[in-house]
Amino acid sequence: MREKILTYIERNSRVDLKDLAIMLGTDEAAVANEIADMEKEGVICGYHTLIDWDKTSSEKVTALIEVKVTPQRGLGFDKIAERIYNYPEVDCVYLISGGFDFMVMIEGKTMRGVAQFVSEKLSTQESVLSTATHFILKKYKDHGSVMVNPSKDERMLVTP
Predict the structure, then answer these.
(1) What is the Cα–Cα distance from 45 to 145, expressed in whole angstroms?
(2) 41, CA 20 to 30 Å: which among 86, 117, 135, 149?
Protein backbone atom coordinates (compact mmCIF):
# COMPACT_ATOMS: atom_id res chain seq x y z
CA MET A 1 0.00 0.00 0.00
CA ARG A 2 2.91 2.37 0.76
CA GLU A 3 4.22 2.45 -2.81
CA LYS A 4 0.75 3.11 -4.20
CA ILE A 5 0.14 5.97 -1.76
CA LEU A 6 3.51 7.50 -2.63
CA THR A 7 2.82 7.17 -6.35
CA TYR A 8 -0.52 8.99 -6.02
CA ILE A 9 0.60 11.78 -3.70
CA GLU A 10 3.81 12.43 -5.61
CA ARG A 11 1.69 13.59 -8.55
CA ASN A 12 -1.00 15.30 -6.46
CA SER A 13 -0.30 15.94 -2.79
CA ARG A 14 -3.72 17.54 -2.43
CA VAL A 15 -5.59 14.34 -3.26
CA ASP A 16 -8.46 13.85 -0.82
CA LEU A 17 -7.77 11.03 1.67
CA LYS A 18 -11.26 9.64 1.06
CA ASP A 19 -10.64 9.48 -2.70
CA LEU A 20 -7.21 7.94 -2.13
CA ALA A 21 -8.71 5.28 0.15
CA ILE A 22 -11.30 4.43 -2.51
CA MET A 23 -8.61 4.14 -5.22
CA LEU A 24 -6.59 1.83 -2.95
CA GLY A 25 -9.57 -0.21 -1.80
CA THR A 26 -9.04 0.52 1.90
CA ASP A 27 -10.41 2.85 4.57
CA GLU A 28 -9.50 6.50 5.09
CA ALA A 29 -8.00 5.93 8.56
CA ALA A 30 -5.54 3.35 7.22
CA VAL A 31 -4.36 5.77 4.53
CA ALA A 32 -4.04 8.65 7.03
CA ASN A 33 -2.06 6.47 9.45
CA GLU A 34 0.27 5.23 6.71
CA ILE A 35 0.94 8.79 5.51
CA ALA A 36 1.58 9.96 9.10
CA ASP A 37 4.03 7.06 9.60
CA MET A 38 5.87 7.91 6.38
CA GLU A 39 6.13 11.57 7.44
CA LYS A 40 7.60 10.54 10.82
CA GLU A 41 10.09 8.18 9.15
CA GLY A 42 11.21 10.85 6.68
CA VAL A 43 9.97 8.92 3.65
CA ILE A 44 7.69 11.87 2.89
CA CYS A 45 9.97 14.90 3.20
CA GLY A 46 7.56 17.72 2.39
CA TYR A 47 4.76 18.96 0.18
CA HIS A 48 5.32 21.47 -2.59
CA THR A 49 3.30 23.53 -5.01
CA LEU A 50 4.49 23.72 -8.61
CA ILE A 51 4.22 27.30 -9.87
CA ASP A 52 4.74 28.61 -13.38
CA TRP A 53 6.53 31.84 -12.45
CA ASP A 54 6.50 32.95 -16.10
CA LYS A 55 2.76 33.51 -15.73
CA THR A 56 3.22 35.90 -12.81
CA SER A 57 4.68 39.38 -12.50
CA SER A 58 7.47 38.02 -10.29
CA GLU A 59 10.98 37.97 -11.74
CA LYS A 60 12.93 34.79 -11.03
CA VAL A 61 15.94 33.20 -12.64
CA THR A 62 16.71 29.51 -12.19
CA ALA A 63 20.14 28.08 -12.88
CA LEU A 64 21.63 24.61 -12.90
CA ILE A 65 25.26 24.68 -11.84
CA GLU A 66 27.59 21.77 -12.43
CA VAL A 67 30.32 21.66 -9.80
CA LYS A 68 33.57 19.68 -9.88
CA VAL A 69 35.24 19.22 -6.49
CA THR A 70 38.10 17.50 -4.74
CA PRO A 71 36.55 15.29 -2.04
CA GLN A 72 37.94 15.74 1.46
CA ARG A 73 39.93 12.86 2.90
CA GLY A 74 37.75 10.70 5.13
CA LEU A 75 34.62 12.80 4.49
CA GLY A 76 34.00 12.25 0.79
CA PHE A 77 31.39 14.37 -0.91
CA ASP A 78 28.94 14.70 1.99
CA LYS A 79 30.69 17.54 3.82
CA ILE A 80 31.08 19.56 0.62
CA ALA A 81 27.42 18.99 -0.25
CA GLU A 82 26.43 20.15 3.23
CA ARG A 83 28.33 23.42 2.82
CA ILE A 84 26.62 23.99 -0.52
CA TYR A 85 23.05 23.12 0.51
CA ASN A 86 23.23 25.37 3.57
CA TYR A 87 23.21 28.49 1.37
CA PRO A 88 19.64 29.89 1.31
CA GLU A 89 19.88 30.48 -2.46
CA VAL A 90 20.31 26.74 -3.09
CA ASP A 91 17.17 24.74 -3.84
CA CYS A 92 18.68 21.37 -4.76
CA VAL A 93 22.02 19.59 -4.60
CA TYR A 94 22.58 16.25 -6.30
CA LEU A 95 25.66 14.03 -6.45
CA ILE A 96 25.91 13.08 -10.12
CA SER A 97 27.96 10.90 -12.42
CA GLY A 98 29.97 12.19 -15.36
CA GLY A 99 32.45 15.02 -15.71
CA PHE A 100 31.13 16.95 -12.70
CA ASP A 101 30.37 15.82 -9.15
CA PHE A 102 27.36 17.92 -8.15
CA MET A 103 24.35 19.48 -9.83
CA VAL A 104 23.19 22.52 -7.87
CA MET A 105 19.93 24.32 -8.62
CA ILE A 106 19.49 27.87 -7.40
CA GLU A 107 16.99 30.67 -7.86
CA GLY A 108 17.81 34.34 -7.96
CA LYS A 109 16.22 37.61 -8.99
CA THR A 110 18.64 38.22 -11.87
CA MET A 111 21.26 36.41 -13.92
CA ARG A 112 23.82 38.77 -12.42
CA GLY A 113 22.75 37.76 -8.91
CA VAL A 114 23.14 34.08 -9.77
CA ALA A 115 26.55 34.73 -11.34
CA GLN A 116 27.62 36.62 -8.19
CA PHE A 117 26.54 33.70 -6.01
CA VAL A 118 28.59 31.32 -8.13
CA SER A 119 31.69 33.52 -8.27
CA GLU A 120 31.64 34.82 -4.68
CA LYS A 121 30.27 31.91 -2.65
CA LEU A 122 30.40 28.67 -4.60
CA SER A 123 33.62 28.93 -6.63
CA THR A 124 35.61 30.31 -3.71
CA GLN A 125 35.25 27.15 -1.61
CA GLU A 126 38.62 25.42 -1.32
CA SER A 127 37.34 22.05 -2.55
CA VAL A 128 35.65 23.46 -5.68
CA LEU A 129 37.76 22.98 -8.81
CA SER A 130 35.36 24.30 -11.46
CA THR A 131 31.74 25.20 -12.19
CA ALA A 132 29.53 25.46 -15.27
CA THR A 133 26.33 27.52 -15.02
CA HIS A 134 23.28 26.86 -17.18
CA PHE A 135 20.29 29.21 -16.98
CA ILE A 136 16.83 27.76 -17.49
CA LEU A 137 15.25 29.84 -20.22
CA LYS A 138 11.92 28.02 -20.51
CA LYS A 139 10.29 25.10 -18.74
CA TYR A 140 8.35 22.69 -20.90
CA LYS A 141 7.72 20.04 -18.26
CA ASP A 142 8.48 20.13 -14.54
CA HIS A 143 7.82 17.42 -11.93
CA GLY A 144 5.67 15.55 -14.44
CA SER A 145 3.48 18.57 -15.28
CA VAL A 146 3.49 20.10 -18.75
CA MET A 147 4.17 23.82 -18.33
CA VAL A 148 3.17 24.97 -21.85
CA ASN A 149 -0.15 24.95 -23.61
CA PRO A 150 -0.29 22.15 -26.15
CA SER A 151 -0.03 23.43 -29.70
CA LYS A 152 -3.14 23.18 -31.86
CA ASP A 153 -3.02 21.28 -35.11
CA GLU A 154 -3.53 24.07 -37.63
CA ARG A 155 -3.46 21.87 -40.73
CA MET A 156 -6.50 22.04 -42.94
CA LEU A 157 -8.60 18.93 -43.33
CA VAL A 158 -8.43 17.69 -46.90
CA THR A 159 -11.12 15.31 -48.09
CA PRO A 160 -11.35 13.57 -51.45
Answers:
(1) 20
(2) 86
